[in-house]
Amino acid sequence: MKKRVPVLEIMSRDLITLTTNDDLVTAEELFKKHNIRHIPVISGNTIVGMLSYTDLLRISFADAVDEYEERVDTMVYNMFTISQVMARDVVSVPSHTTIKEVAQFLAKKEFHALPVVDDGKLVGIVTTTDLINYLLKLY
């Protein structure tokens, strides 16, 4: 098994991002269109927050989902801004961090995605799904 593989080997580079000027309806559309669960919130190339699909579900209340759970009632989204809902204290890793180090970190935390930042610039995102897919390729 490879031991010192950098996270840049498995991170997503084609990033879907939001800004604090976007709205939560747009965020939900991006989550569903791209089948993702985490979106970095940026200002220029700098990450300022992370929005997860779970964050949206948390504010939308269980009864706001239609019977087929295909869409969330977007009316509640108009009551909040991305800045109010996103996680602000975002932990990131540089692209030379090893996959093992990322896996150890995510195993201890309550979140499932880490932005990858080099020289203050967002260059990727690595998720627990990326880690699982990497492990599956090894076996």
From TrEMBL:
Instruction: Name the InterPro entries for this protein.
Output: CBS_dom, CBS_dom_sf, Diverse_CBS-Domain
**Protein name (record):** CBS domain-containing protein
Q: Which residues form the CBS domain?
A: 11-67, 86-139
Task: Keyword check for Transcription regulation, yes or no.
Answer: no
Keyword Plastid among record annotations? no
* Cross-referenced Gene3D superfamilies: CBS-domain
CDD domains recorded: CBS_pair_AcuB_like (cd04584)
Q: Which UniProt keywords apply?
A: CBS domain
Which is a Pfam family this sequence falls into? CBS
